[in-house]
Amino acid sequence: MRKADLKQYAEYISRARAVTTDNAYPLSIALGLQTGDIYESDDGKAVLFWHYCGFAYISGDPSDAFLDEVYDLLETGTRRLILITNDDRVIRFMSNYGCKIDHRIEYSYEGADPVTLDTDRFRIVPIDEYNITKIQGRIVPSFSWESDEQFLKNGVGFVAMEDDNICAVAFSSAVSDEEVDIGVETYEEYRRNGLAAALAQKMCEEITADGRRPVWSHAETNIGSGSTALKCGFKKERRVVTCLSGRS
Q1: How far apart are CA 225 and CA 149, in angstroms?
Q2: How confident is the model at residue 55 (pLDDT cuts 50, 70, 90)?
Q3: pLDDT of 173-203, one tens digit each?
């Protein structure tokens, strides 16, 4: 395989659109909106999109030789690689190599009635250059954006505040010209106040007003994320496989 030069990324937009799972992450790379690597097979029949956050996607018809090289990246790469796929042949190949196989659920958006929020206690404000440095947690902008500056230029997000304290965050984890994948995290002491749903719905309003589609995904074991998605008007679209290093 060969690694594409950054100047060539736009040539891979159509290949990113051809990914058969949610394609916001691969498109974000090809469109130059977020950071990631692109690798093309020697025969030109397959492409690997490897996002900054670690999510990776294969487009096209990968040969065994190409999958061997993807496996080497997965096992020996300098940063994590989580291959997301619904290609049975890819799944079998990675399983035979001893990769850890898990599942994710991907959702599409249908719309829902407004979510209620205790506005006497909480307020929702956009993420900006002043509050972004105060956001903490795992599923936050730094999960999938290389820098605050990159997020503020190409992303969108909101935080829930109680007085001057950030309680929860929702943000664009991946962006394309068609879709925005939503990430949400609520600080533990503020859970069960409806903040995740209220923030996610605010994100959906912002995304649809911009002419794009909100999408949602989570590890199958994350029951809370699935509950929030359904509450905000998402419906299950597909169950996909994640292939991780056997060392994970």
Answers
A1: 27
A2: very high
A3: 999 999 999 999 999 999 999 999 999 999 9
State how far the Cα of 105 lies from the Cα of 93, in Å rounded to an integer: 21
End-to-end CA distance of the chain: 25
Q: What is the DSSP letter of 211?
A: T
**Residue showing tokens 């999408």:** 215
Domains of the chain: 2-104 (3.40.630), 108-238 (3.40.630.30)
Nearest to 228 by CA among 191, 194, 202, 180: 194
Write the Ramachandran bin of 163: left for phi over 0, alpha for psi from -120 to 50, otherwise beta: left
pLDDT value of residue 247 = 56
Q: Which tokens in the block code for residue 163?
A: 């007085």
**CA torsion sign, 245 to 20 to 35 to 129?**
negative
8 A C-beta contact, residue 206 and residue 175: no
- Beta carbons of 242 and 103 less than 8 angstroms apart: yes
What is residue 12's predicted lDDT score, i.e. its pLDDT?
98
- HSE-up of 101 (CA within 13 Å, CB side)? 15
**Tens digits of residue pLDDT in 88-121:** 999 999 999 899 999 999 999 998 888 889 999 9
Give the global pTM.
0.95
Predicted confidence at residue 7, as pLDDT, reads: 96
Specify the pairing of strand 55-60 against strand 46-51. antiparallel
Spatial distance between the Cα atoms of 183 and 71, rounded to a whole number of angstroms? 27
Closest CA to 159 of 213, 209, 122: 122
DSSP tag of 113: P
